[in-house]
Amino acid sequence: MNRFCLIGHPLGHSVSPEIQQKLFRLNGLSGEYILREIVPGELGGKIAELQSFDGFNITIPYKKEIIPFLNGVSEKAGIYESVNTVKNENGRLIGYNTDAEGFRRALAAFSLPLEGRVLLCGAGGVASTIACTALQNGCALTVAARNFEKAAAFCDGLRSRFPGKIIEPSFLKTVSGRFDLVVNATPAGMLHYNNENPVPEPVLRAAGGVFDTVYNPAQTPLLQRAGELGIKCGGGMPMLVWQAAAAQEIWLGVRFRDADIEQICREMQSKLGLSNTPSGKR
Ligand code: NAP
Question: In whole angstroms, what is the distance from residue 58 CA to residue 86 CA?
């Protein structure tokens, strides 16, 4: 039986094992997919154990930290400086980035084009992959964060990898303009985090489309408001499921049909629930 795992910290609420098992079943496969929590500072000591798996996924906070321990990375993962999928190729650990594929496939599922002017809210891990994907697509990028210095440093890091591209930092509360696509890459609106819409109303009113990476709940305050305004929009569940599917495509050479992925998204969404019950404001 194929053996896979997810490494990260913390992993308590991860729905990845359930998604991976649903994906295995679609191709009539049986596989093991377990959670391997690694406390910060101990990643290096766990590499030998990880060699016993056929592959593994990586989440916060190790997507960058894993790279020096690998035998190679795909071109995209190298440019993105982010690895979320590793394949064990006869003892050689090769890193890939399937978050970008998940993002692309999710936008396609909602018929949201990745072109023109893109506003990216947030300057953390998922924002980094989305920024690189947008820039590779030729988009002009504005990165808005609640801390302007963080947005500026994030943009400086991008400019060195994407010279000549339009990349501008902004302060999230005061960002303005008309964007073809607005992406929330902050946890704002996430269950047990807060129930805030991070996008200023004038920006939202003028937006061509909205994508929220948050997948729990399905209907975030941002998506609810975008819907009220009649703006085309979608949430993060297809991104989560497609990045998992893309990992299995790399590990196992399998392929997935859109309709099957949509069905898994529906199942996961109904399991997680549709509403946001905040338990704090951060
Ligand atoms: P991260 O690395 O911790 O980055 C979070 C970013 O959001 C930081 O820029 C942070 O700013 C900002 N932020 C946090 N709280 C905020 C608030 N209340 N208002 C405005 N900005 C805020 O996290 P990440 O890995 O990028 O993940 C971010 C979110 O993306 C997750 O919470 C999850 O919902 C979603 N996500 C979805 C998928 C998917 O497949 N759909 C995958 C990964 C993540 P500071 O630096 O100032 O704290």
Answer: 8
Q: Are 84 and 57 in contact (CB under 8 A)?
A: yes
Question: Which amino acids bring their CB within 6 angstroms of ligand 1?
Answer: 60, 102, 122-127, 145-147, 150, 172, 185-188, 190, 194, 198, 213-215, 236, 239-240, 243, 282
Helices (H), 12-169: 16-26, 43-50, 75-80, 99-109, 125-136, 148-161
Percent of the chain scoring above 70 in pLDDT:
97
Per-residue pLDDT tens for 146-186?
Answer: 999 999 999 999 999 999 999 999 999 999 999 999 999 99
> What is the spatial distance between Cα 248 and Cα 108, in angstroms, rounded to a whole number?
20
Q: For residues 155 and 176, give the distance between their C-alpha atoms in angstroms, rounded to a whole number.
A: 18
CB burial class (10 A; 0-12, 13-18, 19+) of residue 26?
middle
| Sheet strands (E) in the chain | 2-8, 31-37, 55-58, 72-73, 85-89, 92-96, 117-121, 140-145, 167-171, 181-184, 209-212, 232-234
Model-wide pTM > 0.85 = yes
Q: Tell me the C-alpha distance between 105 and 100, whole Å.
A: 9
Question: In this structure, which residue's CA is closest to atom 13 in ligand 1?
Answer: 186
- Give the torsion sign (CA, 190, 192, 198, 201): positive
Across 139-145, average pLDDT = 98
Contact 268, 216 (CB under 8 A): no
